[in-house]
UniProtKB/TrEMBL annotation:
<comment type="similarity">
    <text>Belongs to the EXO84 family.</text>
</comment>
<dbReference type="GO" id="GO:0006887">
    <property type="term" value="P:exocytosis"/>
</dbReference>
<dbReference type="InterPro" id="IPR033961">
    <property type="entry name" value="Exo84"/>
</dbReference>
<protein>
    <submittedName>
        <fullName>Exocyst complex component EXO84B-like</fullName>
    </submittedName>
</protein>
<feature type="region of interest" description="Disordered">
    <location>
        <begin position="755"/>
        <end position="780"/>
    </location>
</feature>
<dbReference type="InterPro" id="IPR032403">
    <property type="entry name" value="Exo84_C"/>
</dbReference>
<dbReference type="GO" id="GO:0006893">
    <property type="term" value="P:Golgi to plasma membrane transport"/>
</dbReference>
<keyword id="KW-0268">Exocytosis</keyword>
<feature type="compositionally biased region" description="Low complexity">
    <location>
        <begin position="761"/>
        <end position="780"/>
    </location>
</feature>
<feature type="domain" description="Exocyst component Exo84 C-terminal">
    <location>
        <begin position="163"/>
        <end position="373"/>
    </location>
</feature>
<dbReference type="GO" id="GO:0015031">
    <property type="term" value="P:protein transport"/>
</dbReference>
<dbReference type="Pfam" id="PF16528">
    <property type="entry name" value="Exo84_C"/>
</dbReference>
<dbReference type="Pfam" id="PF08700">
    <property type="entry name" value="VPS51_Exo84_N"/>
</dbReference>
<dbReference type="InterPro" id="IPR042560">
    <property type="entry name" value="Exo84_C_2"/>
</dbReference>
<feature type="coiled-coil region">
    <location>
        <begin position="174"/>
        <end position="201"/>
    </location>
</feature>
<keyword id="KW-0175">Coiled coil</keyword>
<dbReference type="GO" id="GO:0000145">
    <property type="term" value="C:exocyst"/>
</dbReference>
């Protein structure tokens, strides 16, 4: 019996998880981020010993309307799900120790049973020996008495129990030979009962009792071996398999019975898998579907058989989960090797996503039986899916770069093939974006990318997906920066630009098209495409309610931050654009400057009165802004704010360069020749010209204040010579008249009676106030 019991205590399978209700569930690795402390606080009221459900409901619902009651019910349902998930996570946190302890307890129970049987056998043997010694001592007392007793024994007829005990081994041999298992089990139970009664009532001698117990033990072992052999046969399945396992459990060898049950299902599964052969021409989704159908059907049947025979006993439940996890891991490795590997390497995100969906779909059917293995599959599939994700993003980057090399940077509506595509895109939503060819390709590939990546939200890839797309967008922005003629950006600082060839945008219209591409993608198309992830997520793409509830609170800030990062990339392009055009205005081709202190200081050395007009650099600045604004009006329809900020940024770049040019101000303030009256007048005219043409269109309040500070600094330098600026500067109307005449000449618009400004406009009043305040401040 000891040897038999030792064979019943066996280690088995990988780790799993058992809930306290007896259903078997693995912990979901993608649990929500909700605080455990907050959940405990929410559940505290329900844990008190005197909690009264009726009173609680009355207190909450007494003053509530129907809508509030529905909200309360929804809240309680969410709290119930959160509590169940918290319990499952808590069990999973101590799972390794739990499984190890369960196995040790199972082994210990088997050893204790073996020890008990051994002690019982030894006790019966000692008792029999003692009785034998007692008989020998009695026979030595009197030979005549012994002869008389022997005569009585020989003459005495055997009792019924003695006859049954003698016939018992032969009867069991017949039952075992005929495989009448139920009758054999009943006979063994009857023998155990008779042996116990015989020992209590002393109806059998010790030798007879020992012989009976030995026969019971031997035939128990024979029956167990017979049942184990039957369970291992490939032809044994269904009812026969459950019956064999149940009989073994009835014999007291439950662990062995459960292991044999699972092993039988594994053998049948391996046999069925031999018919599924992946080929180079086979469809990965078809192979995954066929494989998952076999694997998860086998697991489901094993769960059903285990529950029917062994119930929800923790030791058996743990072994079942370990076995199921092992099967799921083996399945995942097969899918990775024969389906996901090739898709991931080629960047086939859609094919990889479909394989994962199929596998998770079949696996989720087990949850109705209390077994959750999705986290096991997702953990193993994740590296392959991430590889496919990276390869897909790389393909978007390379394809866009290839088109950028030949892009003529002319905005157009999407090609007809894109508009008629069945894929969901901006065009199918009633939007017809005007982009250049490379931007159209980038947008269409990103739209398809979001369609493909949506089903993978269960793998918690949202963050890496958005980061990867941001990296690809930055790479495209780098291409656009490189398309600017004479860009001063150090290409070593442009991550991902490498040695990619890009067609140069020669004209101002082409250069503005670069900004139109970037702004439309960053402000509208990409954020709208990213919203697909949220809609899929909230529509049930992820089953975990707590994770979905938490995501609703976190997703909006995350999307805003992601959109800000997109905008910062566009700002890099805008700054490069403005810096390049500012440098073209300020410097000549041979490196000389159009804006220096000498151009103002040298005016007082001329004999003739100058022809008063704003300096050429500022006239060219206004002409450039006027041309660009006209072009941008057609390119940035609906996004006029971006065009306005772009023009303001260009003006700001020029003015800040003047404000921060140390050599300019050193010559003005500390040079060998001071700034004279004519030079101050010209400088004042230039600054007022910028204020007048920039108000409301090309000048921000910040730059307006910078110009005022610049004027104040120049007047302070002039005052340092001992002269009053007011004594040499004409009236404000003189400056306004000359500036307005120049504006009219450059813009081609006739001058209004009061100039181009509206009399009631806030910018007009600000300009007038600033001129008077600067002159009064400079004179003091």
């Amino acid at each position: 019996m000891a040897s038999a019991k030792s064979s019943r205590s066996r280690a088995s399978g990988p780790l799993g998880l058992v809930t306290t209700t007896g259903l078997y569930q693995t912990a979901n690795g993608a649990a929500a981020q909700e605080s455990g402390v907050q959940l405990v606080d929410k559940l505290k009221i329900f844990k008190t010993n005197n909690f009264d459900p009726d009173a609680y409901v009355q207190s909450k619902c007494q003053t509530m309307n129907e809508k509030e009651i529905r909200h309360l019910c929804s809240y309680l349902q969410d709290l119930k799900k959160a509590s169940a998930e918290e319990m499952r996570r808590s069990v999973y946190a101590n799972y390794a120790a739990f499984i190890r302890t369960s196995k040790e307890i199972s082994d210990l129970e088997g050893e204790l049973l073996s020890i008990r049987n051994l002690l019982s056998t030894q006790a019966a043997l000692i008792h029999g020996l003692a009785e034998g010694v007692h008989i020998d001592s009695l026979s030595a007392g009197s030979e005549g008495s012994a002869e008389h007793d022997v005569s009585n024994i020989e003459d005495r007829e055997a009792t019924d129990i003695e006859k049954w005990s003698a016939e018992f081994p032969d009867m069991l041999d017949v039952l075992l030979a005929e495989r009448r298992v139920d009758e054999a089990l009943d006979a063994l139970d009857e023998a155990e009962r008779i042996a116990a009664e015989a020992k209590q009532n002393q109806t059998l001698t010790a030798v007879q009792l020992l012989s009976l117990r030995t026969a019971i033990q031997d035939h128990c072992q024979k029956l167990a071996d017979q049942l184990a052999e039957a369970a291992c046969q490939s032809s044994t399945r269904g009812v026969e398999l459950r019956a064999a396992a149940s009989a073994l459990k009835r014999l007291g060898d439950g662990p062995r019975a459960h292991s044999l049950l699972l092993n039988a299902h594994n053998q049948r599964l391996q046999y069925n898998l031999q018919t599924i052969h992946p080929t180079s021409s086979s469809y990965g989704g078809a192979y995954t579907a066929a494989l998952s159908q076999q694997v998860f059907s086998a697991i489901a049947q094993a769960v059903s058989d285990s529950l029917e025979v062994f119930g929800d006993e923790p030791a058996y439940a743990s072994e079942l989960v370990r076995w199921s996890t092992k099967q799921a891991e083996a399945f995942a490795h097969l899918v990775k090797r024969h389906a996901l590997a090739s898709s991931a390497a080629a960047g086939g995100l859609r094919a990889a996503a479909e394989c994962v969906q199929i596998a998770i779909g079949h696996c989720s059917l087990l949850e109705a039986r209390g077994l959750s293995l999705s986290s096991v599959l997702l953990k193993l599939f994740r590296p392959s899916v991430e590889q496919a994700l990276d390869a897909n993003l790389k393909r978007i980057e390379e394809s866009t770069a290839a088109l950028a090399a030949a892009d003529d940077w002319v905005l157009m509506y999407p090609p007809a093939s894109t508009r008629t595509s069945g894929r969901t895109s901006a065009t199918t939503m009633g939007i017809q974006p005007k982009l250049s060819s490379s931007a159209h390709r980038f947008n269409s590939m990103v739209q398809d990318f979001f369609e493909d990546v949506g089903p993978l939200l269960t793998m918690q890839l949202g963050g890496s997906t958005m980061d990867g797309l941001l990296k690809v967008f930055n790479s495209y922005i780098n291409l656009l920066i490189n398309a600017l003629p004479g860009s001063m950006e150090d290409e070593a600082n442009l991550e991902g630009s490498g040695n990619k060839i890009v067609r140069i945008a020669e004209t101002e219209a082409q250069q503005l098209a670069l900004l139109a591409n970037a702004s439309l993608l960053a402000e509208e198309l990409l954020p709208r495409a990213a919203m697909k992830l949220s809609s899929i997520y909230q529509a049930g793409g992820v089953d975990d309610s707590r994770r979905r509830t938490s995501d609703r609170h976190n997703r909006i800030p995350e999307q805003r931050e992601w959109k800000r990062k997109l905008q910062r990339s566009v700002d890099r392009l805008r700054d490069s654009f403005c810096r390049q055009h500012a440098l073209d205005l300020i410097f000549t081709e041979d490196g000389d400057t159009h804006l220096s202190a000498e151009m103002y200081i040298s005016m007082d050395g001329n004999v003739e009165e100058p022809e008063w007009a704003p300096s050429q650099i500022f006239q060219e600045l206004y002409a450039k802004l006027n041309r660009m604004a006209s072009i941008a009006a057609d390119m940035f329809v609906g996004r006029e704010r971006f065009a306005t900020l772009l023009m303001m940024r260009l003006t700001e770049t020029v003015i800040l360069w003047l404000s921060e040019d140390q050599s300019f101000w050193e010559d003005i303030e500390e040079g060998p020749r001071p700034l004279g009256p004519l030079g101050l007048q010209q400088f004042y005219l230039d600054m007022q010209f910028v204020i007048l043409f920039g108000q409301g269109r090309f000048l921000s309040r910040h730059v307006h204040q910078v110009i005022i500070d610049i004027i104040d600094r120049a007047m302070a330098a002039f005052s340092a010579t001992g002269m009053n600026p007011d004594s040499v500067l004409p009236s404000d109307d003189w400056f306004v008249d000359i500036a307005q005449e120049t504006i009219s000449r450059i813009s081609g618009k006739a001058r209004m009676a009061n100039g181009d400004r509206e009399l009631n406009s806030p910018t007009a009043s600000v300009s007038a106030q600033s001129m008077s305040s600067v002159r009064s401040h400079g004179s003091t």
